[in-house]
Amino acid sequence: MAFLGAIAGLVILAIGGDLLVRGAVNLSLRLGIPALIVSLTVVSFGTSAPEMLIGVAAVMDGVPDIAMGNVVGSNTANILLVLGVPALISRLRTSEVDTRDSYSHMIVASLVFVALAFLGPITWIHGIILLLLLALSVGHSMLAAYSHRRAKRAEGVEGAEPSADGWKVALYLIIGLISLPIGASMLVDNSVVIARNFGISESVIGLTLVAVGTSAPELATATMAAIRRQADVVLGNAIGSNMFNILAIIGVSSFFGDVPVADRILLGDVWVMIGASALLVPFVFFGVDITRRWGFLLTGLYVIYAIELLS
Hints:
Blueprint: H1 2-31, H2 35-47, H3 49-60, H4 64-80, H5 84-89, H6 100-118, H7 124-152, H8 166-197, H9 202-214, H10 216-227, H11 231-253, H12 263-278, H13 281-285, H14 292-310
């Protein structure tokens, strides 16, 4: 039954991801703002909802290792899998997307997070710092959206789906945002049951099964965006989700209890996360597209990392 539940979760994720992409692209066109900004905010925050629920619940239940492992593992998966797997399906023309500002914000957030982790358990005081950084990043995105809308307000909604009225766009977004956490929850819950039957530890479950499971909404959304050739949605979703994971999930979770960082995560996994983030430099700053070859490399690196964890 656990295997059937996991498969059902994957099906729900695929449907929800497709609807969320369609809703996000049409929303951006109708509002006159870039799809990248919608992906950095609405889409990424929505697809990160499972991580938020699991993070808070883990701290309240006295298993903060799962919360920390979930965030660090999800951020690594968001780069290596969420960008790697879609590239196997379709070339991601990231050379046409300007993500330099948002990527820089993500790197700063990641380094601040690592610094706070080394200072000891992450407390509510650290949580306030993380949430303030999130507010600054979102504010920057809102200003960029406003400027773009003013510059493009005379261009109408050319390119939007003709049948996608305002209510239908809202319906796409609502169904997508609701179904993704449901699908992810089904996948995670059943995967954890399977893993515990094999005697896998809590921290490794957080870094692997829970992390991949809660990244499944991002992966489903990115895969559907790649099929629709929306590289801006793919990249924006990955970057935005990573910022939300670090700043919002750890920030909010710290208000429900201190979040310690296990030695294994502190000395190893956070640096894997930073290294994975650094792999985006060619795509962000040098106009390199994420081709199928890059997709194999990114996905392969994650497979190697997961095997090392499970061993």
